[in-house]
UniProtKB/TrEMBL annotation:
Residues 7-127 form the Response regulatory domain. This is Response regulator transcription factor. The keyword rRNA-binding does not apply. The modification 4-aspartylphosphate is found at D57. It comes from the Bacteria. Gene3D superfamilies: 3.40.50.2300. Keywords: DNA-binding, Phosphoprotein, Transcription, Transcription regulation. It holds the Pfam family GerE. It comes from Kitasatospora aburaviensis. Residues 148-219 form the HTH luxR-type domain.
Length: 221
């Protein structure tokens, strides 16, 4: 786990909420190294301070639509070592799927109205900063299209192992190396997971994201 103090960049356009979060996090032993009110400020702050984790609101100026989560996706590709915790009252499924496309490790997505205690929020921050995952069940449900939870129990031990490595963001080649099997064998296991999860081909890599989300929902990660 990340040792205290946890270094945090906070991106929230509401000054009142932002100041309140700074006080709460500081009281819990975290160090807020920068606060931002816009997506460009967020990108610059993370680049300059390289925090353990960035807390990002989805809707930020100037359009208040998806600037924040777009910036979060960019950060995942440019500074993957920085944890990203989306903290919003909205679920943006398309961009959330892109945020998780490279794996769920070091990613969180919590809904503001569903966080009951500050301790839970800080615990989620630390988990994400340490490479873990913190996804609100409602977010997972929405990303899965409202479908029922997966049949993870139907997977073989090897298929579960492959899926767990997928959730950590590993490619088929990397998984093959870790398990000391051929890449073709991994492809067969991945295809079996897709079949058991009833994930039809959609012309993109969304099946991989949905498989990971299903695993997380079932495992309680």
């Amino acid at each position: 786990m990340i040792d205290s103090p946890l270094r945090v960049v906070l991106a929230e356009d509401s000054v009142i909420l932002r100041d309140g979060l700074v006080e709460l996090l500081t009281a819990r032993g975290c160090t807020v190294v920068a606060t931002c009110g816009t997506a460009p400020e967020l990108l610059a702050a993370v680049g300059e301070t390289r925090p353990d984790v960035a807390v990002v609101d989805i809707r930020m100026p100037p359009t208040h639509t998806d600037e924040g989560i777009r910036a979060a996706v960019e950060l995942r590709s440019t500074v993957p070592e920085v944890g990203i915790l989306v903290f919003s009252q909205y679920v943006e499924t398309v961009w959330a799927a892109r945020l998780l496309a490279g794996g769920a490790a070091g990613v969180g997505y919590l809904l503001k109205e569903r966080v009951a205690r500050t301790s839970e929020f800080v615990e989620a921050l630390r988990r994400v900063a340490a490479g873990g995952t913190a996804l609100d069940p409602e977010v997972v449900t929405r990303l899965m299209g409202g479908g029922r939870r997966s049949r993870v129990d139907a997977l073989t031990p090897r298929e579960r192992e492959v899926l767990e490595l997928m959730a950590q963001g590993h490619s088929n080649r990397a998984i093959a190396g870790r398990l000391v099997v051929s890449e073709r064998a991994v492809e067969k296991h991945v295809a079996a997971v897709f079949t058991k999860f009833d994930l039809a081909a959609d012309g993109g890599d969304n099946r991989r994201v949905k498989a990971v989300l299903t695993y997380l929902a079932e495992s309680g990660s």
